[in-house]
């Protein structure tokens, strides 16, 4: 018996094999189907997908064998590693100096005919082989040999796909962990800021009221600046808390909602003092959704239509349409509009486009991010149509 030689690139080859994270993994149907097909095409009782580890050969999939691994020293498949571009064909092992006294030949599983196609990764590393084995000496025909080569290519494709799926899962888990850390950090910081911030606002207001007669105009103005800045910071903190509030909660669309009644409720809360004209759908449509989520979505959208409107008479048109899969609710205004070049980034968190609203207040850049998040939780999507100086229309697609 001649022992299989160790390839000159053994370290790199083993590293490549380990990178697939497949050794000792559970059976997988896609791989099992390949050995079954190889066995049927070649009319052999045994077929394996063999991966050659440092001191052993391990079968990812097998048919006709009871054991799942064997010694590398007596492995037929280990011989394929040194000629990774050539199929290894042994028509009769008893006539081959390498194998005539191999334990796998003179004992179980009595290998007489062996054909193995090297499994070579995209970087040229031989990982093992796809093989078929018979207990009788024989030759395979050209069709069978070509079929084995194609099946071996599919094994490599499956290995590559499996590796990429693992990498995607690892990246997903890493991003999820970082996101949770960021969420926790934002929550802690926001809560730690809110308490002293409320104290500053309360004390500032107290100073304004109790020292009104003692402070000159500049002093009162400075206190006003302090209060206004604190108020803006509080708005930002509240928005951050709101943004992360529902991250870990499931949003279930299980409530019947009359659209016009619901929109009128939001309009009343916003209290525009007749400065805006609201146009509602002619029909009071009934939809099934989540009131809390819809409140977040349309309060923010209608509020933005009010705040970013520079026309003498603001008009906000709320409309409804539907398709087979979606209820579509649109909020259209005649306000400032948004430059088309900025449409792609308006849903980014903290993105304000440098604008101040009609009350000279700067937004937090969190409202539309919250809107998009809530729409996605309802398995929907949101689209924008806007032209600078003419107005904006948001279309919210809610899954039925």
TrEMBL record:
GO molecular function: phosphorelay sensor kinase activity
Transmembrane segments: none
Signal peptide: none
Catalytic activity entry: ATP + protein L-histidine = ADP + protein N-phospho-L-histidine
Lineage: Bacteria, Pseudomonadati, Bacteroidota, Flavobacteriia, Flavobacteriales
Protein name, as recorded: histidine kinase
EC number: 2.7.13.3
Pfam family, one: GAF
Keyword Kinase annotated: yes
InterPro entries linked: GAF (IPR003018), GAF-like_dom_sf (IPR029016), HATPase_C_sf (IPR036890), HATPase_dom (IPR003594), His_kinase_dom (IPR005467), HisK_dim/P_dom (IPR003661), HisK_dim/P_sf (IPR036097), Sig_transdc_His_kin-like_C (IPR004358)
Organism: Flavobacterium lindanitolerans
Highest taxon listed in the record's lineage: Bacteria
Keyword vocabulary terms for this entry: Kinase, Phosphoprotein, Transferase
Segments forming domain Histidine kinase: 188-400
């Amino acid at each position: 018996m001649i022992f299989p030689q160790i390839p000159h690139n053994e370290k790199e080859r083993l590293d490549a094999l380990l990178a697939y994270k497949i050794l000792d993994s559970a059976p997988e149907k896609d791989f099992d189907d390949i050995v079954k097909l190889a066995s049927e095409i070649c009319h052999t009782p045994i077929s394996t997908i063999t991966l050659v580890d440092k001191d052993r050969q391990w079968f990812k999939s097998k048919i006709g064998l009871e054991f799942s691994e064997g010694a590398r020293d007596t492995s037929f498949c280990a011989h394929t590693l040194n000629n990774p571009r050539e199929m290894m064909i042994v028509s009769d092992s008893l006539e081959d100096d390498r194998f005539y006294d191999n334990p796998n030949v003179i004992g179980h599983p009595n290998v007489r005919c062996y054909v193995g196609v090297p499994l070579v990764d995209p970087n040229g590393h031989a990982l093992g082989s796809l093989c078929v084995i018979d207990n009788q000496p024989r030759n395979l025909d050209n069709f069978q040999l070509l079929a084995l080569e194609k099946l071996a290519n599919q094994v490599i494709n499956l290995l590559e796909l499996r590796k990429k799926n693992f990498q995607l899962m690892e990246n997903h888990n890493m991003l999820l962990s970082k996101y949770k850390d960021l969420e926790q950090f934002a929550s802690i910081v926001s809560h730690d800021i809110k308490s002293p911030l409320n104290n500053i606002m309360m004390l500032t207001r107290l100073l304004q009221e109790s020292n009104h007669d003692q402070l000159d105009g500049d002093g009162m103005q400075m206190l006003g600046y302090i209060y206004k800045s604190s108020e803006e910071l509080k708005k930002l903190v509240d928005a951050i808390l709101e943004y992360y509030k529902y991250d870990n909660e499931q949003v279930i669309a299980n409530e019947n909602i009359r659209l016009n009644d619901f929109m009128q409720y939001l309009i009343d809360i916003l209290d525009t003092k007749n400065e805006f004209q609201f146009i509602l759908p002619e029909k009071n449509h009934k939809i099934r959704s989540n009131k809390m989520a819809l409140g977040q979505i349309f309060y923010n959208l209608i509020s933005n239509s009010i705040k970013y409107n520079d026309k003498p008479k603001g008009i906000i048109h709320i409309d409804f349409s539907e398709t087979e899969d979606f209820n579509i609710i649109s909020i259209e205004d005649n306000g400032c509009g948004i430059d088309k070049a900025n449409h792609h980034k308006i849903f980014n968190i903290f993105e304000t486009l440098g604008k101040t609203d009609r009350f000279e207040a700067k937004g937090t850049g969190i409202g539309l991010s919250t809107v998009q998040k809530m729409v996605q939780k309802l398995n929907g999507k949101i689209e924008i149509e806007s032209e600078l100086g003419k107005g904006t229309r948001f279309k919210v697609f809610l899954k039925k």
